[in-house]
Design goal:
Radius of gyration: 19 Å
Strand content: 15-25%
Oligomer: single chain
Structural class: alpha/beta
Order of helices and strands: EHEHEHEHHHEHEHEEEEHEH
Bound molecules: NADP nicotinamide-adenine-dinucleotide phosphate
Length: 288
């Protein structure tokens, strides 16, 4: 049976550290502040934003909860970001994605000052990450690397296979895993990969970030591998009050029996994403 990676517990330790750092800053008269902008009312986005607001309050940080109607124009959003960039009381700016189709996500991300880009999505942050220079690291990939380190899962010389090449998970994760202090050998699979199971069967570390519930089955996993499930999928379930249940991208029940380590959904990668975000905000506030 696999060791279950308790992302909730590991994230709680990170958040304890963030709380202490926040306290020290507050004593010096600096209160870390994150502006969280939500455009529209996408239910998953509302729930992510609410989670982030709660985490900010728990850490003793300020949250500027900015909720805008779906009809907000791109120009209005860009003007708001410009004002927040200029506001010295705001240390981080996060625009919850996805945005309504009439707004360019690229233009919005580009408008956030890299000094306040605590999501790590700005091209300058991405460039710094790839070059190994200081800058904000994207929260989900950074949280995954943190989990591997915390669980003492051997990464040096390991073959890590990532399913998914999105800008927020797959691509940056590949970049972090090949850093010298992690030293994994990385394969990235996507819809252009004819048969990804050829690669996943060889993976010492398998990370699934595709957004397809149960796509990864036990036959695709090497016994003893570390399986990191990034997927968060709402699967209809009439027995639940919400009408859905959250499922990952891997067949947890079957893979738990053969993997060496596995992250649950929920309670694995998700809490680490928020913890890493909080860490980026406190770091932004600590930076003179
Ligand atoms: P995304 O932008 O939709 O990207 C999905 C990736 O998976 C794409 O690269 C796609 O390939 C690939 N893919 C899809 N179906 C595939 C298949 N059948 N075979 C091989 N590759 C396939 O998704 P994302 O934003 O990275 O998110 C992925 C999942 O992680 C979602 O469930 C999301 O909710 C979750 N997520 C969780 C967290 C967290 O904190 N826990 C954070 C971020 C995302 P192509 O590029 O070829 O289309």
């Amino acid at each position: 049976m696999a060791i279950i990676i308790d992302g909730k517990a590991i994230a709680a330790k990170v958040r304890d550290d963030v709380r202490l750092r926040t306290q020290k800053l507050t004593e010096r008269g600096i209160r870390p502040c994150l502006a969280v902008i939500l455009v529209g009312e996408n239910p998953a986005s509302v729930s992510y934003v609410t989670g982030k607001e709660k985490a900010l309050a728990e850490a003793g940080m300020d949250g500027r909860d900015i909720r805008l109607p779906a009809a907000t124009s791109e120009a209005e959003l860009l003007a708001l970001i410009a004002a927040l960039n200029a506001d010295s009381a705001v240390h981080g700016i996060l625009v919850q994605l996805p945005l309504p189709p009439h707004i360019s996500e690229d233009r919005v991300i580009n408008a956030i000052s890299p000094e306040k880009d605590v999501d790590g999505f700005h091209p300058v942050s991405v460039g710094n990450m790839v070059l190994g220079r200081p800058g904000f690291l994207p929260c989900t990939p950074n949280g995954i690397v943190y989990l591997l380190k915390e669980m003492q899962i051997k990464t040096a010389g390991a073959h890590a296979v990532i399913l998914g090449r999105s800008n927020i998970v797959g691509k940056p994760l590949a970049s972090l895993l090949i850093r010298r202090d992690v030293n994994a050998t990385v394969t990235v699979c996507h819809t252009g990969t004819p048969d990804f199971s050829l690669y996943t069967k060889q993976a010492d570390i398998l990370i699934a970030a595709v957004g397809k519930p149960g796509l990864v089955t036990a036959g695709m996993v090497k016994p003893g591998a570390a399986v990191i499930d990034v997927g968060v999928n709402r699967v209809p379930d009439s027995s639940r009050k919400s009408g859905f249940v959250l499922r990952g991208d891997v067949d947890y029940d079957a893979i738990e029996k053969i993997a060496g380590w596995i992250t649950p959904v929920p309670g694995g990668v998700g809490p680490m994403t928020i913890a890493m975000l909080m860490r980026n905000v406190v770091e932004a506030a600590e930076t003179p």
